[in-house]
């Protein structure tokens, strides 16, 4: 049973790390603000989500598991809001040019 | 070499590189962003050293509120930088560099010359946890064994806010600190400022409460509460209170004031200044911490809001 849990953890955390890597490459390589934001939010949403999902089987108790999930939810909320704000100000900057 | 060691080496290298970059980069804004990232990575180092209390404080103050404070300063300096065309002379720069290198070398030397086996008080602290009824040794040191330092730290916070307020022009004295923020009331920021504070307030109180037995405490919890308050201010949902408000001033002195009263009580009824009677130690410490979290949250928020800019009457 613990083998299955460990395999789930390794697979999900590795997939999460891949999304973070892809998001970082996108942040560095994409041409403008909106596409860079797109890359970054993928790292935040999917990468963090997969890492949290992978860590869930290792959580000692239901309480710890709920804490992990709430970290992901707060990360989602912050990422979504901040990317909206940045995109809006980037767009305003473009129209005033 | 284990994965953990590789991670530590990479982390230390990135922190060093970021430190050098932050000092070397010319733009104030970039240096500030570098410094914020530096603070967050240093918090990771504290976690690796099992100093979670310090890590929480570093992330909240060094990376979070300190970062916002520096960003605000950088934004104000941006106008000044355009005016200051006069570059410092070569002699000034070389002597500044020499002085910095000298200080860094002296610090490095001092760290390297530390004795290998340091005389530590940690076992004594752990052996005396019974005295307060709290099991987090950090909270014991902060609130009981070295309570004097913590009390004076709160007085320093009070002095800092007096320093910021003293920058107010005469016409604005007694008025509201900082600009009145206006945002779209149906916009994203206002939405976040309505959604997040209930969660943040619970987390802040939880951090205070759990500080008795686990990493956490009034300072870290207060920083979270302050950021929730600032979020509501920045979204234009609420205004900063006028600095002439009696209630505000009462909250600002509540923490150090209660600390001082309890300390004097110890002198009057007990053995020494700040000596808690063992039976009452836990409730007294909790009471002081609750007063302190209010003071800390308000002080940190007002430090970031800045000097009074608008008069109270409108």
Average pLDDT of chain A, rounded to a whole number, is 87
- DSSP summary, beta strand count of chain A: 0
What order do the strands of the largest sheet of chain B run in, or round the barrel if closed?
1-2
Number of helices of chain A: 3
Strand content of chain A: under 5%
Mean pLDDT over the residues of chain B = 87
Characterize the largest beta sheet of chain B: strand count, sense, and whether it forms a barrel: 2 strands, antiparallel
Radius of gyration of chain B, taken over Cα atoms and rounded to an integer in Å: 22 Å
Low-confidence stretches of chain A: none
Q: Please report the distance between the alpha carbons of the first and last residues of chain A.
A: 60 Å
Total count of strands of chain B: 2
The secondary structure category of chain A is mainly alpha
Rg of chain A computed from alpha carbons, rounded to a whole number of angstroms? 16 Å
| Overall 3D shape of chain A | elongated
Give me the secondary-structure category of chain B. mainly alpha
Structure description:
The complex is a heterodimer of chains A (97) and B (314). Chain A is mainly alpha-helical and 97 residues long. Helices cover 89% and strands 0% of the residues of chain A. The N and C termini of chain A lie far apart (60 Å). The relative contact order of chain A is 0.14. The model of chain A has no long low-confidence stretch (mean pLDDT 87). A two-stranded antiparallel sheet of chain B has the order 1-2. Chain B folds into two domains: 119 residues; 178 residues, no CATH class. Chain B is built from eleven helices and two strands. The model of chain B has no long low-confidence stretch (mean pLDDT 87). Chain B starts with a helix and ends with a strand. The interface between A and B is small, with 6 and 7 residues.
């Amino acid at each position: 049973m613990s083998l299955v849990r460990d395999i789930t953890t390794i697979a999900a955390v590795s997939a999460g790390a891949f999304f973070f890597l892809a998001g970082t490459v996108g942040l560095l390589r994409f041409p403008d603000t909106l596409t860079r934001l797109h890359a970054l939010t993928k790292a935040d949403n999917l990468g963090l989500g997969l890492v949290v999902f992978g860590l869930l089987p290792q959580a000692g108790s239901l309480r710890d598991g709920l804490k992990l999930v709430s970290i992901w939810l707060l990360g989602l909320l912050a990422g979504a809001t901040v990317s909206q704000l940045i995109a809006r100000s980037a767009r305003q900057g473009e129209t005033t040019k | 070499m284990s994965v953990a060691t590789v991670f530590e080496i990479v982390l230390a290298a990135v922190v060093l590189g970021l430190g050098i970059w932050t000092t070397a980069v010319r733009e104030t804004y970039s240096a500030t962003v570098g410094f914020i990232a530096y603070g967050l990575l240093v918090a990771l180092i504290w976690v690796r050293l099992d100093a979670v209390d310090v890590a929480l404080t570093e992330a909240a103050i060094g990376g979070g509120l300190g970062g916002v404070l520096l960003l605000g300063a950088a934004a104000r300096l941006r106008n000044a930088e355009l005016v200051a065309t006069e570059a410092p002379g070569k002699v000034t720069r070389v002597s500044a560099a020499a002085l910095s290198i000298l200080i860094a070398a002296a610090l490095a030397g001092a760290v390297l010359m530390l004795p290998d086996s340091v005389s530590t008080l940690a076992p004594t602290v752990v052996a005396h946890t019974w005295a307060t009824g709290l099991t987090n040794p950090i909270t014991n040191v902060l609130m009981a064994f070295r309570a004097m330092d913590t009390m004076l730290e709160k007085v320093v916070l009070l002095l800092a806010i007096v320093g910021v307020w003293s920058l107010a022009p005469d016409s604005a004295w007694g008025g509201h600190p900082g600009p009145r923020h206006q945002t779209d009331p149906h916009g994203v920021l206002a939405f976040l400022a309505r959604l997040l504070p209930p969660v943040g307030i619970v987390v802040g109180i939880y951090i205070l409460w759990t500080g008795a037995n686990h990493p956490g405490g009034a300072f870290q919890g207060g920083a979270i509460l302050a950021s929730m308050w600032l979020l509501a201010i920045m979204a234009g949902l609420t205004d900063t209170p006028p600095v002439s408000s009696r209630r505000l001033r009462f909250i600002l002195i509540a923490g150090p004031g209660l600390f001082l009263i309890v300390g004097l009580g110890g002198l009057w009824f007990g053995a020494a200044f700040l000596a808690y009677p063992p039976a009452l130690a836990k409730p007294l410490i909790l009471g002081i911490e609750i007063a302190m979290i209010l003071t800390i949250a308000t002080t940190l928020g007002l430090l970031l809001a800045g000097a009074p800019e608008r008069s109270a009457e409108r």
